Amino acid sequence: MGQAKRRKEAGERVSWCRTCTYCCTLPEILALDKPMYRPCRHIANRGCGIFGQPERPAACSAYNCAYLAARLAQAPERSLIPHPLDAGAYFHRDPVERAYVLFVDPARPLQWKRSAIVDYLRRQVADGFTLVILDRGMRMVVSAPPLFEEILKIDYVAFAQAEGRPLDIPTFAEWPGTQDA
């Protein structure tokens, strides 16, 4: 019997999220007065303390992790989307635009480029979706397969920093570890 099954039978809350809180840390959530790159005040017990509660804002649902959404819906592509902790990033499909938004873990910024997330997102960009990448305070918009391939080859954030480009998301300057860089 697997660890998750044993925990579930013991009455513990078992989640596909494991210990991931990217969706509660990386995006901005205006309804909770939460800036990007800062943990939400509702993180509790290694997850969202208000998940499924009436006080959880609708904006949180808009950041519905593609990994979690695919599993909850038993979607055919669920095996193609790696867990965010394994990928070093999480992404969601924008509920309004024909776009995906990728939030990269600043502690492991290049991990996503070596994960199965690349194959999934490559197909989405080839199918005409726009990809918005939020990485270490920078925002990149990818709307064509050649640009996606170019972003995979080099660290665009390091390049932009070397060029002196200012952060697109100023709150990243307060992320723990940026003072050491």
Main attributes of the structure:
4-stranded mixed sheet; 6 strands; globular; two-stranded antiparallel ribbon; alpha+beta
What's a concise summary of this model?
The chain is of the alpha+beta class and 181 residues long. The chain has eight helices and six strands, in the order ααββαααββαββαα. It has one domain.
Outline the structure in words.
With 181 residues, this protein is α+β, with helices and mostly antiparallel strands. The protein has one domain. The chain contains 8 helices and 6 strands; from the N terminus they run ααββαααββαββαα. It has helices at 3-9, 22-25, 58-62, 66-72, 84-87, 117-126, 145-153, 156-162; strands at residues 43-44, 47-48, 89-93, 99-104, 130-135, 138-142. The strands form 2 sheets. Strands 3-4-5-6 form a 4-stranded mixed β-sheet. A two-stranded antiparallel sheet has the order 1-2. Helix 6 links the parallel strand 4 (99-104) and strand 5 (130-135). The protein is globular. It starts with a helix and ends in a 19-residue tail after the last helix.
* Helix-and-strand structural type: alpha+beta
Whole-Å distance between the termini? Answer: 44 Å
Uncertain spans, ≥5 residues at pLDDT below 50? none
Overall pLDDT score: 86
Q: What's the order of the H and E elements? A: HHEEHHHEEHEEHH
Residue fraction in strands: 5-15%
Determine Rg (CA atoms, Å): 17 Å
Question: What is the helix fraction of residues, given as a range?
Answer: 25-40%
Biggest sheet strand line-up: 3-4-5-6
